[in-house]
């Protein structure tokens, strides 16, 4: 009882000591990252040009795509703000900006931002890049900028700063790797790039002046007051903690004794150690399939700037740029139904698939909660973006390129199944235009191989693109053949399944039945490759047969496509040596219809 009273007395002392601080915290409160971001935006964009309003209900800015906002890989923290040439006409609220604790890059160049650079900008301690050039900023260039010890690049040129700048600013700014400062006076009108040096090894020159000495004395007096108070509060807290722990132990002992007295016939309760559940201290490392010089650390990946490109209930796709400027595509997978060992075994098998038409897996990371798959980023985009650009009239998509892409995809899939037969078959399971990437030569690269079989079949993420999914809805070679047949139909017809949702096999089969086969082809195909498009149409229709037993294997599909390619090449050689025009050498549609209708495969008859 006496111990309880002492504990309450000490608790009261603590409350009295820290009450003013607590009251201030309750009134002001600590802003969350979301609140800080939106408050900064409302200040710098006073005219709401960006149309980013906030009523307290919006989710974290990293949970959806905001132009110019960069987040880390886990989409939990903002690491970059690039709002250049946006006609922003507000002010810089550094108080809220610096609440973004992971912020490293800020660029607000070429706007109409007014006012001063606040001295509180010094609280943005992680900034490495700051560009405020070409605005309407005025006043003195603040010395606070020199306190950003991680800052490597600073550009505040083309503003309306005061004609003079403190000498110590000019002395300390030389420690940035790159800086561009311009005022209305020619005194500091220069742009300079200095040799990079470590701030840890080279300290800025000390400055001795009257005002700084006065400031130091002021802080010295404050600290002489704060230190004893802090020590006293710490001592009180320590005593209270020890007394509270002792009182709690006594109370537990009394409860156990009382339980023993009330139940003498029962065995004494077992005392069990309760171990705190902590998150994984040691994270799984990256497993690489590339040369040593191309490797990096997991922390490099997690701390890199990441752009969210797409997101589903089961996965997210990021474009990630490392500090060395290397760019990767990172697939983050969740809700996989697979053990760690099975996933690792499958990824190692996928990582060893080396083929010109398969996007190589750079590395992977696996934990119980999520998996990360890392690929080289392909700047040419996907086959879907190419076909859409053609449909919108933004670029050409000639017949030869279509034929080359179809051949490359077939070769990649055939290699997957030939290689898999040596071990355990790993079907793709999610083949579609957006998963066919294009390298710098516009050769096709099959991406996202191997993990579809681990997705929960009850979730919509597995069969989100129903237009490519075989009727039996299984992850198998027959299912991949069906999906390839749909892709082949898209190349021939110029229609996209992913965006339109059209049942393309059904539409094409209906056109064939009505003997309108010639109307199936896209104008580019009809113009340049009509003669060889019919055999390819026959291949595609065999691939999309309703019964999996009626579909050919990928080896058979590749053989037929190569026959078309060889025939097309022979025709080109003949035309180059012939005086006849290409139009005279192309038969009419009526002569080619039999190529689609005639059954010339050794496999069972397809159900058209």
UniProtKB/TrEMBL annotation:
- Membrane spanning residue stretches: 223-244
Instruction: Tell me where on the tree of life, at the top rank, the source sits.
Output: Eukaryota
Q: Does the keyword Signal apply?
A: yes
Start and end residues of each stretch annotated as Disordered: 564-585
- Quote the biased-composition stretches of kind Basic and acidic residues, using this chain's numbering: 564-576
GO MF terms held by the record = ATP binding; protein kinase activity
Q: Pinpoint the Protein kinase domain residues.
A: 302-565
Q: Name where it's found.
A: Membrane
Keywords attached to this Swiss-Prot or TrEMBL record, sorted alphabetically, are: Leucine-rich repeat, Membrane, Receptor, Repeat, Signal, Transmembrane, Transmembrane helix
Q: Tell me the InterPro entries matching this sequence.
A: Kinase-like_dom_sf, Leu-rich_rpt, LRR_dom_sf, PRK1-6/SRF4-like, Prot_kinase_dom, Ser-Thr/Tyr_kinase_cat_dom
Is the keyword Repeat assigned to this protein? Answer: yes
PROSITE patterns per UniProt: PROTEIN_KINASE_DOM (PS50011)
**Protein name, per record:** Protein kinase domain-containing protein
Q: Which organism's genome codes for this protein?
A: Citrus sinensis
Organism classification: Eukaryota, Viridiplantae, Streptophyta, Embryophyta, Tracheophyta
